[in-house]
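Ticket #312: bound-state structure for zinc ion.
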Amino acid sequence: MKEYAFGIDVGGTSVKIGLFKNDGTLVEKWSIPTHTENNGASILGDIAKAILAKMEEKKLTEADVEGVGIGLPGAVDAQGVIHKAVNLHWEDTFNVAERLSGLLNGLKVKAGNDANVAALGEAWVGSGKGYDSLVMVTLGTGVGGGVIVNGKIVEGATGAAGEIGHMHMNDDEEKQCNCGNHGCLEQYASATGIVNILEKELAASDENSVMRQKKHTAKDVWDAVEEGDALAIRVAEQFGSYLGKGLSIIADVINPEIFVIGGGVSLSGDVIMPFITKNFEKHVFHACRGTKFTRAILGNDGGIYGAAKLVL
Ligand SMILES: [Zn+2]
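RESOLUTION: The complex was predicted; output attached.
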């Protein structure tokens, strides 16, 4: 195997790029802006330019670089075909891996969905290291997921495997999810979802709560839970009920060794974890009851690590 690989994580505002050694050591990371104008026509060209310039700077040739892995905000199938990426203003269905490889003089390129790729990063050198099967759950503005079985990403038929944020959890939800459906897990387990639950609870009564003085953010809810605030604890119970139940269903289907919880909400991990695991244990099939839970450790770099691992 060649000594180096590049890992790329494409977001709506910036593209993170990492140069890695094949043992998972990060040599250097940097980022370039994502140019979404003209339907994102220059995004892949900008990435190719940045990589070729770095190879020249480091005096690396194709004999030194195993390839380039790229994580993208959209459904990407096992062949590298992306089906639209709203954040990048990409409307078409096309093979990203082939197109980028063409811009890189034929260098090997593999592409994946960003949440799936972040899961692979955690499995490689993060808190999922040493586990063959894991499910990563990212609790941010939305809820993302990535499923690794036998050390490999499960892409699914159209690249949509691991979209756990859109598992239907509640028949009675009136608000619409970003995806157009109603009652998705992300409407209760994301940072936005936690705030939605909070605002419902605050409006339902005049009950005294520190949340009436605090800002309405997920972080403030968890701080209030730590202070023992009854209303905040009820919000946490609802969050945990939806997420714990959702993860128990995933465990019944995949039976992973471990769940890795990441994203901004997970930074309050010591407080939130018991709310999740309690509800998980309550609903999961008995043979899955030993499933472990841990917090992600690679943070925003998970994507570039996992992307590099795609080609290694
Ligand atoms: Zn949804």
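RESOLUTION NOTES: The longest helix spans residues 230-254.
TICKET STATUS: resolved
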